Amino acid sequence: MAFRPLAVPAAAPQTRLVKRPVRLHPAWIVAAVAFVALVGAAGFRATPSVLLHPLHAEFRWPLATISAAVSVNLLLYGLTAPFAAALMDRFGIRRVVAAALALVAAGSGLTVFMTASWQLVLCWGVLVGLGTGSMALAFVATVTGRWFVHRRGLVTGVLTAGGAAGQLVFLPLLAILVSRYGWRAAALVVAGAALLVVPLVLRLLREHPADLGLPPYGATEVVEPARPAGGAAARAVGALAQAARTRPFWLLAAGFAICGATTNGLVGTHFIPAAHDHGMAQTTAAGLLALVGLFDIVGTVASGWLTDRYDPRLLLGAYYALRGGSLLVLPSLFAATTEPSMLVFIIFYGLDWVATVPPTVALCREYFGASAAVVFGWVFAAHQLGAAVAATGAGLVRDQLGEYTLAWYIAGTLSVGAAVLSVMLIRRRGAAFTEPAPVAAAPRAWSYRG
């Protein structure tokens, strides 16, 4: 007496069978590899804040000029995201992420040969911007959308926290390398780290759970991935055209633009130079920014947990309002030494750094359905547009006024405005548009025969 599977009709080739129990769902392995790639991407993006003053000292380029290269990086980092999400749908996650890491290695490594500011823009701005943009938060949305049903918000928070971990790992190391061996050593370390991640991505970063005959984590049915029609660029632009007709898209994009301006653009780029202006050692300031990353891991994971349980609109409003208050008091906290009040700011701001991401991803999924990852890529592009404007704007403020105080006050006021935009989403809670869900594969039939 034995169990035997019934023959499966040829008309249903998508039906799959798991022949043995799976103790650890491969979704967790994919999430772990994605986390490592995101840690690296965050480290690559942390480099400019450590190198601003060394480049200014060696080449005598104005801070506004160096900040412009950072702005190009931030802008391309955002604009690449929706196209990268569409490319992942068409060509696969592994190919896109491996190519992105190669671009980062090339961009960082070539900086050691530069002699003019336009070369800085090309290497830091264009190459590293395109590479890190392909591993941006749209990558997080793609991985969680494909591989998770349960714990989706929590995993989004953990992967987003990979950016914070990257700061934690790379910033103190890069600051030490710059102080002891010069900025070129730091650039080469970043290039080498990017290349080391490539084999891990090619070996372990799977595309779809259906490729392994498994449902996503928390689901009961194997779902064959829908193959996108048309080119990746057309799909990315089409998703934008459809989303741009809706009110939620503009509210989310405007709020996330302010998020980018007040994190990557201002604090991520100019906190170390601002602290240095008040007599603080660069390594000390880098350590404080790394602490922001440490506490952001806690804050972002907690935000993912909360997003699974509470209205993400309310969470966004609270996060932006608290961030605005903290930035308004920051100018009074700078000193030559690390005072307790600054440590309180670092802890508080760290908990809120990118806690906005899990609820924003959840709202994109709610409003935009199957196009959520690509639409979130465009929302994230707005995030990086805000970051680019803030990076250049704060550099100009510092060049013209000799201090950053005005930049902090503007950022705090904008954050309060983002809280208002988030509350406006509550008034229009209905879905912006929906797309038909992919057809789930029927479970394979089994029979008992004596």
Commentary on this structure:
The protein has a two-stranded antiparallel ribbon. The chain has 450 residues and is mostly helical. It is globular, with a radius of gyration of 23 Å.
Short recap of the structure:
By secondary structure, the protein is an all-alpha fold.
Distance between the termini: 5 Å
Q: What integer value in Å does the Rg equal?
A: 23 Å
Please count the beta strands (DSSP E, at least 2 residues each). Answer: 2
**Number of helical segments with 4 or more residues:** 16
Largest sheet: 2 strands, antiparallel
Give the integer mean of the pLDDT values: 80
Overall spatial form: globular
Question: How much beta, percentage-wise?
Answer: under 5%
Sheet/helix structural class:
mainly alpha
State the order of secondary-structure elements, H for helix, E for strand.
EHHHHHHHHHHHHHHHHE
Strand order of the largest sheet: 1-2
Low-confidence stretches: 1-22, 430-450
Helix content: over 70%
